[in-house]
Specification:
Layout (H helix, E strand, L loop, with lengths): L1 E5 L5 H11 L3 E5 L8 H6 L7 E3 L5 E3 L1 H11 L12 H25 L11 H22 L13 H11 L4 H7 L1 H11 L2 H10 L4
Parallel strand pairs: 1-2
Antiparallel strand pairs: 1-3, 3-4
Helix pairs in contact: 1-3, 1-6, 1-9, 4-5, 4-6, 6-8
Length: 207
């Protein structure tokens, strides 16, 4: 059985979605935010971040994008990603890597700006730069969705859920919906999905 370390409103959202879509039983452990790190959890997640997943064989895995890729490989019947070798699989890997390396770090800089500067007077500048980077990344994804329903292939994948999770963290979601209509089109479909609604009830990612 999998063991998922997560907390409401975190990147555990997409991992919970993946496990539910795969029909994989898992134990969920909510990890509260603490000023003092728990040594036992640090042994699993050295950066003290969630999500972290312990696999049935006891191996631990961090980084939400890596977890998504692994679960897609382990549960191909669940359709978490396009089939290996397909053009859609290439897009899946491309956009998941893009979001995890461009957008997710920018979001962290926005909400934890004090960690990214030693100058207290520069915190707002860090936040402003983070929002600009987020906007640039979301604009690229919006253009990628101009002629397609989903980011990768012709069906919903974890890349789409990952995108919905990230755009829900934008500090001005109403502007996000207006500025990036193709993302909003995808996000609107997911907001009506039964599983997404269930997960959102506990994570409160969007109103």
């Amino acid at each position: 059985m999998y063991k998922l370390f997560t907390r409401p409103g975190s990147g555990g959202f997409v991992v919970e979605a993946a496990l539910a879509m795969a029909g994989a039983p898992f134990e969920q452990i909510d990890v509260p935010k603490k000023d003092v790190s728990d040594p036992a959890f640090l042994a699993i997640s050295p950066l003290n971040q969630v999500p972290a997943l312990i696999l049935p064989d006891g191996h631990s895995l961090t980084e939400s994008a890596a977890i998504c890729i692994l679960l897609a490989e382990r549960h191909p019947e669940a359709g978490l990603a396009p089939e290996a070798g397909s053009p859609g699989r290439a897009d899946f890997l491309r956009w998941l890597a893009f979001m995890s390396s461009v957008l997710y770090p920018a979001i962290l800089r926005l909400y934890y700006a004090h960690r990214y500067t030693a100058d207290a007077g520069s915190v707002q500048a860090v936040k402003d730069a983070a929002i600009a980077e987020m906007d640039r990344g979301f604009a690229i994804l919006d253009r990628a969705l101009a002629d397609r329903s989903w980011l990768a292939g012709d069906k919903r994948s974890l890349a789409d859920i990952y995108l919905a999770m990230l755009v829900a963290w934008h500090p001005d979601t109403m502007r996000a919906r207006n500025d990036w209509p193709n993302i909003e089109r995808l996000w609107a479909r997911l907001r009506e999905d039964e599983l997404m609604r269930k997960l959102n009830a506990s994570h409160e990612m969007w109103p």
